[in-house]
C-alpha cells in the first residue's frame, strides 16, 4: 500500500484583488477557509410517455456555492473587509498549502460579521458568493 497524499490546511491563504490578474495579498490571521462547492439544477423533463411513469431530468445551470473565511479580528483587517464589502464585487483567490494550487473567482461580498465580544479571541467571518465559474489552477 502506498503512503497517503493527504495534507492539512496549514499555510492556506485567502486574498482579494480588484483585477483577475491580482496580485492577491493574503489576509492576515485567517483561521479557516471553506471553498465554494459546485452544484447544478435538475430540470424536470417528464412527459406523458416517460418510461414506466418515472420522472426524467436534464442537467440545468451550474452554480458555485458560497465561500466562508473566518479570521482573527483586528481593526486593520476589518477595515480592509469593510472596503471590500462596500465595493460589492472583488476577485478572490484561495491558495492551497502546496503553494501552487489556487482557486480564483469573481465574487459578490454577501456577508461580513464580527464575532461575539467575550473572554475568548475576537473573530470575523467573511462570506462571498462566486459570480461565474471558479478557475482552479493545479501546478
N/C terminus separation: 25 Å
Please bin the fraction of helical residues. Answer: under 10%
Our Rg estimate from Cα atoms comes to 19 Å
The helix/strand series, from N terminus to C terminus, equals EEEEEHEEEE
The share of residues in extended strands comes to: 35-45%
Number of strands: 9
Structural class assignment: mainly beta
Query: What does the overall shape look like?
Result: globular
Q: Give the uncertain stretches in residue-range form.
A: none
Average of the residue pLDDT scores? 95
The major β-sheet equals:
7 strands, antiparallel
Helix count equals: 1
Description:
The chain has one helix at residues 75-87; strands at residues 13-17, 30-34, 38-44, 57-64, 67-72, 89-95, 102-114, 123-130, 135-137. With 139 residues, the chain is mainly beta. Strands 1, 2, 5, 6, 7, 8 and 9 form a 7-stranded antiparallel sheet that branches. The protein has a two-stranded antiparallel sheet with strand order 3-4. A hairpin with a 6-residue loop joins strand 6 (89-95) and strand 7. It is globular and about 65 Å long.
Amino acid at each position: 500500500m502506498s503512503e497517503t497524499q493527504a495534507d492539512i490546511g496549514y499555510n492556506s491563504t485567502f486574498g482579494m484583488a480588484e483585477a483577475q490578474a491580482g496580485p492577491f495579498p493574503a489576509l492576515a490571521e485567517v483561521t479557516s477557509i471553506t471553498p465554494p462547492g459546485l452544484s447544478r439544477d435538475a430540470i424536470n423533463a417528464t412527459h406523458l410517455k416517460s418510461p414506466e411513469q418515472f420522472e426524467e431530468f436534464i442537467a440545468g445551470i451550474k452554480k458555485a456555492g458560497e465561500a466562508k473565511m473566518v479570521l482573527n479580528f483586528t481593526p486593520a483587517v476589518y477595515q480592509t473587509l469593510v472596503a471590500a464589502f462596500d465595493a460589492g464585487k472583488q476577485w478572490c483567490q484561495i491558495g492551497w498549502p502546496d503553494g501552487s494550487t489556487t482557486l480564483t473567482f469573481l465574487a459578490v461580498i454577501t456577508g461580513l460579521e464580527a464575532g461575539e465580544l467575550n473572554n475568548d479571541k475576537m473573530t470575523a467571518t467573511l462570506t462571498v458568493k462566486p459570480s461565474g465559474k471558479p478557475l482552479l489552477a493545479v501546478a
